[in-house]
Fold this protein.
Amino acid sequence: VVLLYTAQPAGGGETFLGLALLTPDLGRLAARLPQPVLTGVAEPQVTWVNGAFWMVFRGDPSGALEWARSRDLQSWERMGAVPGLSGDWKSGALMPEPVNGEYVLLA
Protein backbone atom coordinates (compact mmCIF):
# COMPACT_ATOMS: atom_id res chain seq x y z
CA VAL A 1 0.00 0.00 0.00
CA VAL A 2 1.38 3.41 -0.99
CA LEU A 3 0.93 6.35 1.36
CA LEU A 4 1.50 9.94 0.22
CA TYR A 5 1.76 12.36 3.13
CA THR A 6 2.51 16.03 3.72
CA ALA A 7 4.92 17.16 6.40
CA GLN A 8 7.09 20.06 7.46
CA PRO A 9 10.68 19.85 8.70
CA ALA A 10 11.00 19.84 12.51
CA GLY A 11 12.74 23.23 12.57
CA GLY A 12 10.17 24.78 10.22
CA GLY A 13 10.50 25.39 6.52
CA GLU A 14 8.69 24.47 3.35
CA THR A 15 6.03 21.75 3.46
CA PHE A 16 6.69 18.68 1.35
CA LEU A 17 5.08 15.56 -0.04
CA GLY A 18 6.59 12.28 1.11
CA LEU A 19 6.03 8.68 0.05
CA ALA A 20 5.88 5.61 2.30
CA LEU A 21 4.97 1.96 1.81
CA LEU A 22 2.78 0.15 4.32
CA THR A 23 2.33 -3.59 4.78
CA PRO A 24 -0.81 -4.92 2.99
CA ASP A 25 -2.69 -5.20 6.29
CA LEU A 26 -1.76 -1.55 7.09
CA GLY A 27 -0.17 -2.88 10.27
CA ARG A 28 3.25 -1.32 9.92
CA LEU A 29 5.50 0.93 7.91
CA ALA A 30 7.48 -1.16 5.41
CA ALA A 31 9.61 1.62 3.88
CA ARG A 32 9.78 5.38 3.49
CA LEU A 33 11.65 7.40 0.90
CA PRO A 34 14.31 9.48 2.67
CA GLN A 35 13.78 12.53 0.43
CA PRO A 36 10.58 14.44 -0.37
CA VAL A 37 9.00 13.67 -3.73
CA LEU A 38 7.77 17.29 -4.11
CA THR A 39 8.24 20.44 -2.01
CA GLY A 40 5.95 23.41 -1.47
CA VAL A 41 2.79 21.29 -1.38
CA ALA A 42 -0.30 21.78 0.81
CA GLU A 43 -3.71 20.07 0.71
CA PRO A 44 -2.81 17.61 -2.12
CA GLN A 45 -5.44 15.49 -3.86
CA VAL A 46 -4.20 12.76 -6.24
CA THR A 47 -6.29 11.17 -9.01
CA TRP A 48 -5.44 8.52 -11.65
CA VAL A 49 -6.42 9.84 -15.11
CA ASN A 50 -5.46 8.37 -18.50
CA GLY A 51 -2.37 6.48 -17.37
CA ALA A 52 -0.94 9.14 -15.03
CA PHE A 53 -1.39 10.44 -11.51
CA TRP A 54 -2.59 14.05 -11.36
CA MET A 55 -2.24 16.05 -8.17
CA VAL A 56 -4.09 19.28 -7.41
CA PHE A 57 -2.58 21.23 -4.50
CA ARG A 58 -2.03 24.61 -2.93
CA GLY A 59 1.57 25.48 -3.68
CA ASP A 60 1.59 29.20 -4.26
CA PRO A 61 1.60 31.45 -1.16
CA SER A 62 -1.26 33.43 -2.75
CA GLY A 63 -3.53 30.39 -2.38
CA ALA A 64 -3.71 29.59 -6.09
CA LEU A 65 -4.27 25.95 -6.99
CA GLU A 66 -1.52 24.24 -8.93
CA TRP A 67 -1.20 20.80 -10.43
CA ALA A 68 1.48 18.24 -11.13
CA ARG A 69 1.69 14.96 -13.05
CA SER A 70 3.50 11.67 -12.31
CA ARG A 71 3.62 8.17 -13.72
CA ASP A 72 5.23 6.55 -10.66
CA LEU A 73 4.27 8.74 -7.63
CA GLN A 74 7.99 9.49 -7.09
CA SER A 75 8.87 11.87 -9.94
CA TRP A 76 6.45 14.78 -10.31
CA GLU A 77 6.30 17.37 -13.09
CA ARG A 78 4.80 20.68 -11.93
CA MET A 79 2.28 21.92 -14.48
CA GLY A 80 1.82 25.40 -12.96
CA ALA A 81 -1.41 27.08 -11.91
CA VAL A 82 -4.69 25.40 -12.79
CA PRO A 83 -6.00 27.37 -15.81
CA GLY A 84 -9.18 29.37 -15.37
CA LEU A 85 -8.95 29.69 -11.58
CA SER A 86 -7.92 32.78 -9.68
CA GLY A 87 -8.08 33.77 -6.05
CA ASP A 88 -7.55 31.89 -2.83
CA TRP A 89 -8.59 28.22 -2.94
CA LYS A 90 -8.31 25.80 -0.03
CA SER A 91 -8.09 22.64 -2.13
CA GLY A 92 -9.34 20.93 -5.27
CA ALA A 93 -9.87 17.46 -6.66
CA LEU A 94 -9.88 16.23 -10.25
CA MET A 95 -12.65 13.73 -11.07
CA PRO A 96 -11.17 10.47 -12.46
CA GLU A 97 -13.72 10.10 -15.28
CA PRO A 98 -14.99 12.69 -17.77
CA VAL A 99 -18.43 14.21 -17.27
CA ASN A 100 -20.16 14.96 -20.57
CA GLY A 101 -16.81 14.49 -22.31
CA GLU A 102 -14.82 16.87 -20.08
CA TYR A 103 -12.73 16.37 -16.96
CA VAL A 104 -14.11 18.22 -13.95
CA LEU A 105 -12.14 19.89 -11.16
CA LEU A 106 -13.99 20.35 -7.89
CA ALA A 107 -12.62 23.36 -6.05
Q: What stands out?
A: The two ends are 27 Å apart (CA to CA). The chain has no helices and ten strands. The mean pLDDT is 87. The first strand starts at residue 2 and ends at 7.
